[in-house]
Amino acid sequence: MIEWRFKPNSKDDMDVDPIQGEFFTTRDIDNISTAVIREGIQNALDERDRLGSSETVKVRISLSGDKYAIKPNEYTTLIENLIPHLNSRTSGIQNVPTFKEEMKYLVFEDFNTKGLEGNPKEYYVEDISDGHPHNFYYFWRNVGRSGKSDDQLGRWGLGKTVFPASSLINTFWGITVRKSDNQKLLLGQSILRIHNLEDVGKEECGYRPYGMYGEYDSAKEYFANPITSEEKLALFESLFRLKRGNNSGLSLIIPFVTDEITINHLAYAAIEQYFYPILSGKLEIDILFEDDEIRLTKDSIYESIEKINFESIYSASDKRKRSKENLQKLFDFAKWTFQLSNNDYFNLNPIDVKNQPRWTKMLFKDDDALSKLRDKYEEGERIAFKVPLKYQPNNTEATLCWYSAYLEKDTALVKPENLFVRDGITISGISSLEKGNARGMVIIQDTNLARMLGDSENPAHTEWQADSRNFKGKYVHGKECLSFVKSTLRQVYERLQKPIEGIQKDLLIDFFSLPIETNEEKKEKKLPKPDDGKNEVNEDEVPLIEIKKQPYKIEKIKSGLKVYKNSEATEIPDQLKLRIGYDVPRGNPITSYQELDFDVSKMPIQIESSGIYFLTKEKNVIEFEITNKDHFELILTGFDEKRDLYIKLQ
After folding, report:
1. 368 in helix, strand or coil?
2. pTM for the complete prediction?
3. DSSP class of 595
4. Which of 14, 178, 253, 433 is deepest in the core (most CB within 10 A)?
5. Of 457, 461, 467, 471, which is closest to residue 391 (Cα–Cα)?
């Protein structure tokens, strides 16, 4: 029997609603297309790198649009007994389709990969180091538990949840062809909330959130076996226009795909996140909308940019998107790194692995070598570095590893560019360079360093975090190693700046204004009259110091505060960071903050703003870019009126 089934809850079950989709709505993923690209492709590259394959991974992403949308009479049988669960009041689906309209869909397929290997009937795996593959089990029967080893890109077991999150009905199907046995298998999954049916099918304790589409052995069975029926597989392949055939890999189908996902967002995300493996020839991506195609290969990526409608992916408050010209410069920069030999790198001095890593003068050899490097940089040459770093999991010997860093000057940049790439995936939430017209890139290819940094990544793979559950306490000086890598570009850039020669009289002119006397003013000065009765010496007058006006003002309002532009200020920074805490009798109010006090991202705290773009809104920290320097305003309310607020603003 092939159908959708949700297992009823028992009275001794813990009721838990899924929240993993929230991991893919971070500030670094502005459109869910980015998450789809990031999570889908990283799994495909994972297999290639782990197996040491020289084959190019190929990915095909297809949006049906209106032209290839599926009519209700063609898809209804596929979701017939899923619809009552979707229509449940507590299903968590905000706007359930009427199922009288055509179904738009997204298809994501990878090729030259192994597919989901492992026993399809596995229902529990305790030890992944038993020498057998368990990919099928971990993909379909787990959330938050990963079957990936430490040297693979994923760690959290959450990446696949981005696919149902891309569907208006939180549902997807998958067809895999396995390289080991050439088996073709089909399953589906729908992720709702704890819910119940209204009339027929109502259960005493409701239903669990996870429903499976598969083949069931009996009427009371809830273990979904994969579908192997050639007729059923052919129906899916034809209906959703798959290119799977007998080629090994995985095809994912997202029905009722959200309108937020477009060919332009997908193409831009693919370029921004995976330009490095594309340009190196490890990855090729075809993105289709109806009959339009954008093909991304090492030979076509330049011309493919011309097909992207950049205006459609920009938003008024989004300053992070790169322009077409900026991407082309990025490609040139990346291609240059492929051509380098070992002699083209400036190798920093090895570090003592017994100590925690620190950026010191000793890393940069002698002054003469650094001076020559500065001259090259000033003349517009690109600079390549090999940087040492220790790798030491607990209870093991320390190892010295190396990673690469690159820097180039670009006077056309409005603000510096930072790029951190681990095993081909761009870690987009890290910023190192804060000033200068410079473009910097850090490439992590060493297996050990990639493993360590991968352990520190958040579920969306956008940041390296010392308190990550897979990282914290696992490495000797792990936190210091993270800090060392993340500050690489800033440290290298600062050492490439030539020291100021002689006295720079206007060094502090931006901070202090000193009036200069003219010759006429000097002539007008007179000695005191002899009969004035005072014994004075005619000394120069002490000049008045004009202090720079604060760019912002902070005003206390009912249950909160207001931050806004100081109308008298002439210079406004690009970013502001606000830390908040309740005043305490002893100690620092900021460091004494506890989550029970408040969380700026949650009720009852309310935020109103204009002229700003938020970078961080979590716990007691708000960080934002100022997008309108003529007028910006931030209003926070909902704090405890019986307690005094302490504010620190940078």
Report:
1. helix
2. 0.73
3. T
4. 253
5. 471
